[in-house]
Amino acid sequence: MKYLDEFRDGRLAQGLAARIRREIEPDRRYALMEFCGGHTHAICRYGIEDLLPAEVRLIHGPGCPVCVLPSGRLQAAIDLVERERVILCSYGDLLRVPGAQGDTLLKAKARGADVRMVYSVSDALEIARAQPDRSVVFFAIGFETTTPPTAVVLRQARREELGNFSVYCNHVLTPPALRALLATDFSSPHQEAATRGAGVVNGFIGPAHVSTIIGTRAYEFVATEYRRPLVIAGFEPLDVLQSILMLVRQLNAGEVRVENEYTRAVGAEGNRKAQQLMEEVFEIRPSFEWRGLGELPNSALAIRPEFADWDAERRFAVPAIQASDHKACACGEVLRGVKRPEECKVFATACTPDHPLGSCMVSAEGACAAHYHYGRFRQAVAS
Ligand code: SF4
Questions:
Q1: Is the minimum distance from the CB of 310 to ligand 1 under 6 angstroms?
Q2: Given the CA of residue 367, which atom of ligand 1 is nearest to it?
Q3: How close is the Cα of 62 to the center of ligand 1, in Å?
Q4: 31 C-alpha to ligand 1 centroid (Å)
Q5: 68 within 8 A of 292, measured Cβ to Cβ
Q6: Is 317 left (phi over 0), alpha (psi -120 to 50) or beta?
């Protein structure tokens, strides 16, 4: 298959891994964080860590949109569908993410709430058109990649004057989350002790899909303000290995630049049309809670007042709910990169993909799910 198999060639992967091994400096540490859940999945699926020398350590970051949604926002969605008797349309992963005290949208559905799984925001719009006597709410989540389609559908709903459709907006922004991670003093002795050294990040593997929208320029602050190199990488195993090699070379040379490995899809400015759409329909929220990172300023989007009639939070006065995660759950630490999934006390015991206690085990892009699905295989091969 053109443009796919080429990026999964095992022989080339071995060659890249050998180059990385040759070029690392034994006294140097290379702790590299991949921000994106898609990269986490690729790293676990293709066993990329097994190809790397011990000096290179990969750290998973908060790049899974399902994982970073806090329990309170989920509980608010459960409250909305049960209290207002709306049709709540959601992606499948979200149905199983625990809200307060382990409640989920799936359990709400079992109690009689009208929760429907959709594959896109357009599906939700279609349900609203087909059932004009019911209120339909789309539970919108995701980074800059999934935001433009929500904007398109909101414009369409306004054009059609579709009064029974609205969006519960939980779209979040990548650069503020990166900034929050970088603003944490990873190298402080306290942080070192608290995390057994896991919190030191020397460089970043930048997201693929998000970067097609926001472009490489959006990450310049990582290099200029925080003095860390960042390489935007595609999702295939050779993309990830090549980006690691590029980071190793920058660190060896003492350089801090934003580089683009994923040139076949990402440009400096990103997708201006998608950016304009987002600006037309959304505005920046002053503050938004992220699971694991807490309240982050200017890190999420709200629907502009011009689209207020299609904003579920205004229409239904969705409550702000504070809900805590299961007390044994280490999702917050996993999302900050200070714990590996296996270091959570309940990983693969009380918490499994069939019975998830935390969001990182639910989503296909979650670090715990990726380790669970591919880690056992790796352990079996090693033994
Ligand atoms: S194993 Fe389960 S409870 Fe522990 S961090 Fe992962 S998702 Fe959360």
A1: no
A2: 6
A3: 14
A4: 22
A5: yes
A6: left
**Six-digit token string for 320:** 């702000």
Q: Is 361 in the pocket of ligand 1 (CB under 6 A)?
A: yes
pLDDT per residue, tens digit, the chain (383 aa), is: 566 677 778 889 999 999 999 999 999 999 999 999 999 999 999 999 999 999 999 999 999 999 999 999 999 999 999 999 999 999 999 999 998 888 999 999 999 999 999 999 999 999 999 999 999 999 999 999 999 999 999 999 999 999 999 999 999 999 999 998 888 754 443 344 334 333 589 999 999 999 999 999 999 999 999 999 999 999 999 999 999 999 999 999 999 999 999 999 999 999 999 999 999 999 999 999 999 999 999 999 999 999 999 999 999 988 888 888 888 999 999 999 889 999 999 999 999 999 999 999 998 889 999 999 998 656 555 55
Q: Characterize the bridge pairing of strands 56-60 and 30-34.
A: parallel
Predicted structure pTM score: 0.92
Q: Which residues lie closer than 8 Å to 383 by C-beta, 6 or more apart?
A: none
Q: Which two tokens stand for residue 259?
A: 């580089």
Report how far ligand 1's centroid is from the alpha carbon of 147 (Å): 27
Q: Ligand 1 within 6 A of 334 CB?
A: yes
Closest ligand 1 atom, residue 372 Cα: 1
Could you tell me if the CB of 302 is within 6 A of ligand 1?
no
